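Supplementary notes for students who missed Thursday's class. We covered one full example, reproduced here. Read the sequence, then the structure, then the short commentary at the end.
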Amino acid sequence: MLSYPESDEFDAYISQGEPLQRAKGYAWKTAIGLQAVDGLQTSEYLLQTAKSHIEGDITIDEAQTRIRSYYESREQRLAAAPGTEEADKVAANIAQILNEDTLSFSVSGLLAVHRRLFRGVFNHAGKLRTVNLTKKEWVLRGDTVRYVSYVDLEPTISYDLSQEKKYVYAGLSQAQIVAHLVQFVANLWQIHPFREGNTRTTAVFTILYLRSLGFEVENDLFAAHSWYFRNALVRANYQNVAKGIERDTSFLEKFFRSLLMGEANELKNRYMLVSSPLMAGEEDELQPEAAQVPHKYRISTAQVAPLLQALAESPLGVKALMEHMGLRHRVHFLTHYITPALQDGLIEQLYPESPRHPRQKYCLTDKGRAML
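Structure (token representation):
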């Protein structure tokens, strides 16, 4: 699973700092953690800027200015890893919003959250998409959720929000409240109103809405389990009747029961991988050792085990895989691990049609999962 050890440095502020430092620490930890939704990692410069803000040396506006100025240098932009500039800018924007206590519960309010999150990052920040979307999902074994058509976006958002405004929570148990909120958030995400940044927008909008309902939301779960949050939203909105797969909100309920009821639920991504009666037995019939690899290097058991274990939770890029496995030589890793594993059918690329995609990652195939 993608990890963000630098965000742990905020724990001291959260547990030992003054109330204002605690609030800022939560905001920044969540802002950084949410970048994992799109496989992004923030820079060391962002971390130091966040600390300066938490300690009161600079304002949040000054923190954002620092980040923007940092990337105005062409040298810095070229030196940054793919996606780091986006991660830094969006994290600073999320931190600003979470340090506030306002929410416009309306279509324009949702658009405003997206616009504020992605200003200076996307030209379409705050604008409804004008195309239909499909996205290959790791948790769906490459299938996609069916999102709302772009021509129906505004009326669909308006309807969902109006229905939620009318909803009466009085007399409900905590479990009933959570079950309703799970369905509301799942429905809102399934609309997918923007070309990019939908999950991060949904997460921030949800946090603000929960606060408006009086919940004291500590954002650790959004920080530490943002990839789980996204996959749970996917499973809550995926149905394939032909394969016997129904929508499953149980994973999202575990997340929200942990968030709002303090339950210690196990939040593991691999449990969400779709399976169906029609798939039963397919993986048992796979014989990985029988495959003939047309590559001059065979992949050994000693190589397979750590590689597959590293990918058990979620797709990872080359850098994250090497760090997870304690390897340093990129060429050696690609030659002796990635290439033979790809040709042996144990792993596959998340973007096979674009091998040099800036967010390229590797994930397990059915064959790889069977071996694992």
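Commentary. Residues 1-100 form one domain. The longest strand covers residues 347-349. If anything here is unclear, bring it to office hours.
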